[in-house]
């Protein structure tokens, strides 16, 4: 697998976390990898005639969007496949797609279902592009077109930043008090634009923070990781891992096929 990362243009930087090409040049399919949920939405645009990947038990022939919000996915890339991958920041993909995010959560859909004829148009342009740098430019031009169709939600942006900057686990009431809105209003906004309720998103963010701790500080004990990530006790820590990964924290650390 060869991965090449590209710079995100300034206008897209608040929304797009990563843009890269992924080329599976081996003679065989990759081994199955368990990709853990991260509340992010990812777009994979195919520029070859080879199917992109097997996700779960389903073969995806063309470009896809994975709304991997709160469930893990078992992925196997196909030999000869090549695609441009775009990863959106948590809560920022709503500006690029037409449907409410909660309708799409935890699904993998063909890009053609969401962008109709534009999907085929992009695939054709990427297939005929001379190099990967040109492909990165083309993709970002199309993203800018989609971005212009939707307004940025200031309240949501403030909430997500508040969650990100907090060192502790925030209760939903703190978010509503900070915004001066009701819990029902906040829940509707999160479901529409993020795809998860505020409570589930906060729980997911704590889990993601713990994964980051595991990666950055491999010498920390699991108890220390749980505490520094905002868990009140080891039981909640273990429960979340079994829910979101299918494994205990210790198994996640030791398993070579789990990607986080």
Map the helices and strands.
Elements: E1 2-6, E2 16-23, E3 33-35, E4 40-46, E5 53-55, E6 58-60, E7 64-68, E8 73-77, E9 82-88, H1 101-104, E10 108-110, H2 111-115, H3 117-127, H4 132-147, H5 154-165, H6 172-179, H7 183-193, H8 198-216, H9 222-228, H10 234-245, H11 249-254, E11 258-259
Parallel strand pairs: 3-11
Antiparallel strand pairs: 1-2, 2-9, 3-8, 4-7, 4-9, 5-6, 5-8, 7-10
Kindly describe this structure.
There is one protein chain. It is globular, with a radius of gyration of 19 Å. The chain has helices at residues 101-104, 111-115, 117-127, 132-147, 154-165, 172-179, 183-193, 198-216, 222-228, 234-245, 249-254, and strands at 2-6, 16-23, 33-35, 40-46, 53-55, 58-60, 64-68, 73-77, 82-88, 108-110, 258-259. The chain has a 6-stranded antiparallel β-sheet with strand order 1-2-9-4-7-10. It has 260 residues and is an alpha+beta fold. It has 2 domains: 2-147, Jelly Rolls (Sandwich), CATH 2.60.120; 154-251, Homeodomain-like (Arc Repressor Mutant, subunit A, Orthogonal Bundle), CATH 1.10.10.60.
């Amino acid at each position: 697998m060869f991965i090449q990362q590209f710079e995100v243009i300034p206008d897209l930087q608040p929304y797009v976390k990563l843009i890269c090409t992924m080329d599976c040049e081996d003679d065989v399919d990759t081994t199955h990898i368990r990709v853990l949920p991260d509340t992010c939405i990812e777009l994979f645009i195919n520029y070859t005639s080879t199917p992109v990947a097997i996700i779960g038990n389903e073969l995806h022939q063309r470009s896809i969007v994975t709304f991997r919000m709160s469930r893990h996915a078992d992925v196997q890339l196909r030999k000869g496949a090549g695609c441009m991958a775009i990863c959106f920041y948590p809560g920022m993909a709503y500006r690029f797609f037409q449907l409410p995010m909660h309708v799409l959560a935890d699904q993998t859909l063909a890009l053609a279902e969401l962008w109709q004829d534009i999907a085929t148009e992009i695939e054709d342009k990427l297939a005929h592009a001379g190099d990967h740098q040109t492909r990165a430019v083309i993709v970002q031009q199309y993203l800018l077109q989609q971005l212009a169709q939707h307004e940025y939600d200031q309240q949501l942006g403030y909430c997500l930043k508040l969650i990100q900057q907090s060192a502790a686990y925030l209760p939903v009431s703190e978010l509503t008090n900070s915004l001066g809105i009701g819990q029902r209003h906040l829940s509707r906004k999160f479901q529409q634009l993020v795809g998860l309720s505020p409570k589930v998103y906060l729980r997911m963010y704590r889990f993601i923070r713990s994964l980051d701790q595991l990666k950055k500080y491999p010498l920390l004990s699991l108890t220390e990781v749980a505490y520094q990530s905002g868990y009140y006790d080891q039981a909640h820590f273990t429960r979340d891992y079994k829910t979101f990964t299918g494994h205990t924290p210790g198994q996640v650390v030791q398993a070579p096929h789990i990607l986080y």
